[in-house]
Structure formats: C-alpha cells, structure tokens
Amino acid sequence: MSQATLNDLFFTAARKMVDGERRIVDVYPRFAKAFSDDALGSEMSTLADNATQHADRLDGVLKDGTGNEASLDNLGVDALIREADAVIEAYPKGALRDAALTAVVQHIEHYKIA
Q: Are 112 and 55 in contact (CB under 8 A)?
C-alpha cells in the first residue's frame, strides 16, 4: 500500500471539485428555469458562468500539477443537486419554491467554498 501525501490529498480534492463545478454548470440553467423570479433565474446564469471559470482553472491546476485532468465523482454536490431536484418537484412555481431553491443553491455555493 502506497503512502498518501498532502500533495495527493490536494489533487484528489481538486479532481472532485472539477467534477462538482462541471455538474453545477450542467444543472444551474435548469434551476434558473424553475424560479418564478426572473432576477433569481438570471443570477443562476451568472453562477453557472462562475462555475465554468472555476472548473477551467482547476483543470489547469490539475494538468500542471499532475498531467492528469480526469475528475473524480463529487458525491457531496450530487446529493445537493438531488435535494434541489426534490424541491423543484415538491413545490409549484412561485415564491415558496424560489425561497426553498435559493436555500439549496446557497448550500451548494457554501459547499464549494468549504
């Protein structure tokens, strides 16, 4: 069994974040359509653009640091996306869904920070 280094841990985390950012880019446009408030939907587009930039930067870090841009499944982001999908299913389009979906999107964004 090989011994992991801090470098290994860093690049494993980065590979997972690339996956998370790419998944976010894929789902945020769908989330934008689920909002009844146009301003909230527009904000989702901005967040998707930011996620694209983050993923591109992480790809560069991985390529420079490991020569490998392959991502690893980000199970945390997957779970939060499923939670957002459940909110969209549970509430009709309107202010209540907007509030609930905003809370889940905040969880996703805070997860990315952590």
A: no
As given in the structure block, the two tokens for residue 104 are: 């889940």
CA distance 33 to 103: 16
Contact 101, 31 (CB under 8 A): yes
Tokens linked to 86:
């459940």
- Rounded to a whole number, what is the largest CA-CA distance in the chain? 54
Q: Which letter does DSSP use for residue 68 in this model?
A: -
DSSP state, residue 114? -
- Report if residue 2 sits inside a domain: no
- Say if residues 91 and 97 touch (Cβ distance below 8 Å): yes
How many CA atoms does the CB half-sphere of 73 hold within 13 Å? 3
Q: What is the CATH number of the domain that holds 89?
A: 1.20.1260.10
Which pLDDT tens digits describe the chain residue by residue (114 residues)? 567 789 888 888 888 999 999 999 999 999 999 999 999 999 999 999 998 998 888 888 888 877 776 778 999 999 999 999 999 999 999 999 999 999 999 999 999 887
pTM, to two decimals: 0.84
